[in-house]
Every structure is written in C-alpha cells, then in structure tokens.
C-alpha cells in the first residue's frame, strides 16, 4: 500500500458503491482510518464530466488532509472573493464580499466538477485503494454479520459494511427503505454550460465578464436566476440558469440543451445575458432537470450493515450550494465512526451512531436550497431596492465553519449512550 498517513489496520472491511465525491471521500477516509476498502464504480472509465461545482469551507478543509490534492486544485479553482447581483434588466443591485469568511473560515473551492473529481481520484489511486471500474451493482443483501452486493455479471462480494454512494438513482435505497423510492419533478430545471472565453473576449457586450480575470455575477428575475463564473483568470466561463420547467425527462448531467430554449427564458433580460447565451457553443449546453425526493426516514438498512451516503441518501437543490459538501461529510463521519467501532462486531452500532450524527444536520441544510431559491425567485423588488443586501446568500457559520471529523469524535460516545438508552426504553 502506498505510503500515506494511515491508522493501523482496524480489521473492518468496507465495500463502497459509486466513485462520486461521496464514494471517493468515504474510500479515502476509510483508508486513512485503517479500514480495508473496495470501491466499485459502474462507469468503465471516469471521465472529467460536468461543469461548475462548489465546496464550502466545511468540505474544502478535507482536501488539505489528502497530501497533494490542494496543490493540484489551486490553479483550477475560481479566485474572486465577491459576487455582483443585478436585476434581470441589468441594473446593478449589490456586491456580496466573501473576503472576511475566506480569511476566518478558510477558502471555498469552486471549479469544474470533472477536474476536481479527477484530482481526488488520482489521490485515491495513489493511496493504493482497490478501485474497480465497470462494476455495475444491481443488488444489495445483508445478514447480522455481513453485507454484500451483486454486480450485473453475477459476482457477489461481501464485507463488514456496504456504503451505497451511487447518486440520485441509488439501488441501495430499496434495501434500506424496503420499497422503491420514486423521484418527482420539482418544477425546475437548470441550463448549464462551461466553455473557453475567446469569443466572449472579442464581443463588446460580454468582454467585461472575462477581461479582468475571475469574476462572479448573478442576474435575478421572476422565478429565474442566472449565475455566471469566469474561471482560470477569465479564460473559461460557466453559467447556470435555473428556471421553471415541467418536463418529465430524467435527471442527467449530459442531456443536451437548446440555445433557443434559454433565449426564450431570458427574453427581455439584460443584453449581456442574452449575448452570453448566443455565444455559448451549442454542443456545450446541458439541460439538467431538478427532481424532488421526500427526505428519507432512514439512511441505514434494518441490520445496520448497509448505509446510504451522498445523493443516494439526500439529493440537494443546487441553491443550497452544499450537495457535494454534505456527500463528503458523510464519508468523513462514517470513517471516523467505524474507527470507534472497535472491530467488525461493532459496525452496526457505529453505523447507527453515524446516522444519528448526520440526519438532522443534513436535513436542515437541505432546506436551505428551497429558502435561497424562494429568496431570489420570489423577490419583492421594492423591498430589495430599500435593502439590497437582502439578496445576499446567507452564509451560516454552523454550516460552513464546521469540522465534521472533529465533531464526530467529540459526540460519538454521547450519541452511542443516547441510542442505548432509547433501545432500553423501547
Ligand atoms: C457525471 C456527473 C456529472 C456531474 N456534474 C455536476 C456538476 O456539473 N455540478 C454539480 O453541482 N454536480 C454535478 N454532479 C453531481 C454531484 O457530483 C453530486 O450531486 C454530489 O457531488 C454528490 O455526489 P455523490 O457521490 O453522492 O453522487 P454522484 O456524483 O452522482 O456519484 C455517484 C457515482 O455512482 C456511480 N454509480 C451509479 N450507479 C451505480 C451502480 N449501480 N454501481 C456502481 N456505481 C454506480 C455513478 O456512475 C457515479 O460515479 C455530477 C454527477 C455526475 C455523476
């Protein structure tokens, strides 16, 4: 095994399904804690897919624990520390500065999902983690002592615990919930893109967005918001446009969008926005439907040998800006709880403690996605012109200035005792 900081072997074996940020973080953190890990991923090749993704200070701190990752990310991530708000016609409203929170809470990481994912994947590989690509898990099972998975080739693998980190269309949910959990359309979708800025630089209307290095701007309209980030010293740009949508296609990060559909949504808007849309390469535009799922009653299977983590347990709206961060916190906290399990026999208790530590925090943060969307989409503009800062993103210390690993170790014993007490009273 590669020579990285690692606790002595715990004797606990872990199978993780899905190599997104939840699965990769869980794999790296389990490896750090001395658990033995197999990571199964359906894709035959992990390509640098996606566009903009954000990690708050609560998760960007994890990159620092993984030797070399922060250094890889530094040249890739968005550098400005302020955000300019405009109304849909292009009238400037307010600038929100993040400089103070960067100074006190540390840096955020905003960048290309695929590039950041590749950096984390390289670290996982360098650690020598057993990552098996092209393994499509189709079934989960467990008994009191072991949990297991079956792949579409019929291979069966077992371990002390299985973590289902397969994203929004998780099959692990069926074992955990005992039924199929059907997503419903949320009524919203996001047009998304990322592309080089050469053409924007030549155009008078869009030049200012990219000519002075990184910048971050947002236009807010009725039931629509349009956010633009210039990255890599203004050489690349990403924009996302969240709007009403009643389509019923499945959520997919690669479903093509149409420029004319976006232009219809921003009809009558600031000419800067319209020009930016017109200059977007059509083959780089995607249309991501946001689906809604009721909060799950539990993240843990009946015998507590299988846990759902990341989007499989709790998909987030993009307006929470916490989906990837909470996926990472899940993995970090689970690895720490397993560290306190004292060996394979203690796994179910550790998994239940993990769920209790995570459940309330995750659901409280999930709700902020709706609050922010409503704050922007249903804005009372008379009130905003009197108090422009009411448009600012709420930056809450309990979410962002938070060390999930330290918190898990600090609370583990108290939560375990509480669960014991509840069991005795039941
Ligand atoms: C291709 C892709 C592009 C994305 N682009 C963006 C983006 O641009 N911006 C953004 O904010 N978020 C994006 N996301 C979502 C974002 O990464 C997640 O919302 C968040 O990071 C939580 O991650 P997760 O690990 O829980 O889920 P995911 O990131 O969805 O990862 C789940 C992983 O599990 C694998 N998997 C699924 N089913 C199985 C199975 N049966 N067997 C084995 N493996 C399986 C998937 O291939 C995937 O690698 C993207 C996700 C994906 C998969």
From TrEMBL:
<dbReference type="GO" id="GO:0004497">
    <property type="term" value="F:monooxygenase activity"/>
</dbReference>
<comment type="similarity">
    <text>Belongs to the paxM FAD-dependent monooxygenase family.</text>
</comment>
<keyword id="KW-0560">Oxidoreductase</keyword>
<keyword id="KW-0285">Flavoprotein</keyword>
<dbReference type="InterPro" id="IPR002938">
    <property type="entry name" value="FAD-bd"/>
</dbReference>
<keyword id="KW-0274">FAD</keyword>
<dbReference type="InterPro" id="IPR036188">
    <property type="entry name" value="FAD/NAD-bd_sf"/>
</dbReference>
<protein>
    <recommendedName>
        <fullName>FAD-binding domain-containing protein</fullName>
    </recommendedName>
</protein>
<dbReference type="Pfam" id="PF01494">
    <property type="entry name" value="FAD_binding_3"/>
</dbReference>
<dbReference type="InterPro" id="IPR050493">
    <property type="entry name" value="FAD-dep_Monooxygenase_BioMet"/>
</dbReference>
<feature type="domain" description="FAD-binding">
    <location>
        <begin position="13"/>
        <end position="176"/>
    </location>
</feature>
<keyword id="KW-0503">Monooxygenase</keyword>
<dbReference type="GO" id="GO:0071949">
    <property type="term" value="F:FAD binding"/>
</dbReference>
């Amino acid at each position: 095994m590669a020579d990285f900081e690692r606790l002595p072997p715990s004797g606990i074996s872990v199978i993780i399904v899905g190599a997104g940020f939840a699965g990769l973080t869980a794999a790296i953190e389990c490896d750090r804690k001395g658990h033995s890990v197999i990571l199964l991923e359906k894709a035959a090749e992990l390509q640098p897919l996606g566009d903009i993704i954000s990690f708050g200070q609560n998760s960007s701190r994890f990159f620092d624990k993984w030797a070399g990752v922060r250094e890889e990310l530094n040249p890739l991530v968005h550098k400005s520390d302020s955000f300019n708000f405009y109304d849909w016609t292009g009238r400037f409203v307010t600038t929100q500065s993040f400089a103070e929170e960067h100074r006190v809470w540390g840096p955020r990481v905003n960048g290309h999902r695929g590039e950041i994912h590749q950096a984390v994947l390289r670290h996982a590989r360098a650690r020598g983690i057993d990552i098996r690509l092209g393994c499509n898990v189709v079934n989960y099972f467990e008994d009191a002592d072991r949990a297991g998975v079956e792949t579409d080739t019929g291979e069966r693998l077992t371990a002390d615990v299985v973590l289902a980190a397969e994203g929004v269309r998780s099959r692990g949910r069926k074992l955990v919930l005992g039924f199929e959990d059907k997503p419903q359309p949320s009524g919203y979708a996001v047009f998304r893109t990322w592309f080089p800025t050469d053409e924007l630089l030549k155009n008078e209307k869009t030049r200012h967005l990219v000519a002075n290095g990184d910048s971050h701007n947002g236009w807010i309209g009725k039931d629509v918001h349009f956010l633009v980030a210039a990255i890599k010293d203004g050489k690349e740009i990403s924009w996302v446009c969240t709007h009403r949508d009643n389509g019923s296609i499945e959520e997919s990060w690669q479903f093509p969008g149409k420029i004319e559909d976006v232009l219809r949504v921003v009809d009558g808007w600031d000419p800067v926005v319209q020009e930016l849309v017109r200059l977007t390469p059509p083959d780089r535009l995607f249309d991501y439907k946001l689906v809604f799922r009721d909060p799950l009653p539990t993240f843990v299977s009946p015998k507590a040998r299988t846990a759902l983590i990341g989007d499989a347990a709790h998909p987030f709206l993009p307006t929470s800006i916490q989906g990837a961060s909470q996926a990472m916190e899940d993995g970090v906290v689970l690895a720490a709880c397993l560290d306190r399990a004292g060996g394979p026999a203690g796994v179910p208790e550790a998994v239940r403690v993990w769920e209790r530590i995570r459940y309330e925090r995750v659901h409280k943060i999930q709700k902020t996605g709706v609050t922010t969307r409503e704050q922007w989409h249903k804005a009372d503009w008379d009130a905003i012109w009197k108090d422009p800062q009411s448009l600012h993103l709420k930056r809450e210390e309990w979410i962002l200035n938070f060390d999930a690993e330290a918190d898990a170790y600090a609370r583990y014993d108290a939560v375990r005792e509480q669960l014991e007490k509840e069991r005795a009273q039941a």
